[in-house]
Give the backbone structure.
Amino acid sequence: MWLEALDLQLRPGLPVGVAAHARLANVSHGRLVYLVDAPVWHAKLRLAATDVLEVARSIGLEVTELVVKVATGPHAMRAPMAGTSNSRPVPPLSAAAREAFAAALAARDEDPSEQDPS
């Protein structure tokens, strides 16, 4: 669910037309990993790497690299992507939702030995 929420937050920062063909697959070790459904979307997303990384950093992610992979096969993309016939438009997140998400990310990255035991 965390990855889906993050995907929804990053989606508005994707290039026009790409959001319907891309899905956030992972965030790990400073890498933002996207799956796309065709090589043309791979190229378009790679060209926008600087902007996509900037959007990710603006919501608190510590990422330095964008990785884009083309998913092949009819079931390679796990869930329907926005813009397909079975999906609804994604509403923008409120400021409170963005703050809560940033706090959750910060809490996830905290060292457990530093947390308050109460």
Remarks:
- The beta strands are 22-28, 31-36, 65-70.
- The chain has one domain: 2-114.
- The mean pLDDT is 79.
